[in-house]
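Q: How do we represent a protein-ligand complex in a form that can be generated token by token?
A: Start from the inputs.
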Amino acid sequence: MSLPPPREVAIQVSGLNHHFGKGEARKQVLFDNNLVVRRGEIVIMTGPSGSGKTTLLTLIGTLRAIQEGSIRINGQELAGLPPPAQVLMRRDIGFIFQAHNLLNALSARQNVRMAVELTATPRGDYDRVADAMLDAVGLSDRAAYKPRNLSGGQRQRVAIARALVNRPRLVLADEPTAALDKDSGANVVHLLRELANNHGTTVMIVTHDSRIISVADRIVNMVDGQIVSDVRIKETMVICAILRKCSVFKEMSPSDLTDIAQKMTEEHFAENEDIVRAGDTGDKFYVIARGTTNIIIESAGTTRAVAKLGEGDFFGEVALLRDQPRNATVTCREPVVVYSLSKENFLAAMKSHKTFDDQMSNMLFTRGG
Ligand SMILES: Nc1ncnc2c1ncn2[C@@H]1O[C@H](COP(=O)(O)OP(=O)(O)OP(=O)(O)O)[C@@H](O)[C@H]1O
Ligand SMILES: [Mg+2]
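Then emit the structure tokens for the protein with magnesium ion bound:
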């Protein structure tokens, strides 16, 4: 398994707060939320009822004005964005919300077609494009039906077809499969995955549907108005695969490895850049994911490279374990990607994993200082 190159940032939420109500009734519902979603990622948001999921989704979708903090969509700041620019922004977002707002006077085909008409699609192709999308959600035999003659799940699928027909850059979905049976739900999930993979569509889904979790790249958990955990599923698997190559992690159970992987942060360094410098206070432990580095030691006025490290090698543990300054400089021979673990998390992992602790002690013997 290899590490995918980092994609551009599609959604960036920073320091986001939100209040509802006025005067004495004013109540804060979102508290200092931070989130970065990259292009083509599928992010699932879960959390208890009333935790703020829909509020966050509507703020990202420009359906609500930002009060405090910032949201950037494809680099564009939403706070203070004038209404005409908001309208343009929304054209590139596919909304799948609980109240689906289908037009009752129009057929399923006409509802989907309305979205197609906003694009540069030639007029003669409108129906063909709308029908292909209805077919993709399993409704080709219901194209001529009006919403009142469709079931709740069928109406939801028309709304999904309408949201996805123009292949928007961003899809925001609030419980999109709640009213769907197993097959229709799987269909929708497949469609979203296909859009993300083939068109770089970024997808945020609020759901409690465990069937959807299999397509997600990340799961964000919201509690009491705050994102409390953000699990990168694939990246965690990639980090685990790299950690497993390190002697110290080899013996760990998958769940212990996953715990550690989830606490690691990806960092990028340029050629010739120092990742750690001799004499600095040690605050992190590093595992190399990509590229090679030199370990450089200075003695008697001369510096020399004493070792070369590559993918799956680790460094930085000595200073953490001994609470001493770094004893060597680690310099990049080329662009390098590392996963780092804070001192606090590193020491906690040591405490809870006996074999890890033993092996680290052995490492310290063999590495000397
Ligand atoms: N328009 C509003 N006016 C006042 N309070 C609101 C409004 N909309 C939501 N709230 C409150 O904000 C909080 C977050 O609501 P939100 O709808 O974002 O929760 P949610 O996580 O989507 O919940 P659910 O899973 O039940 O859909 C709740 O306490 C809710 O009562
Ligand atoms: Mg909600």
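The longest strand covers residues 9-20. The chain has two domains: 9-233, 250-367.
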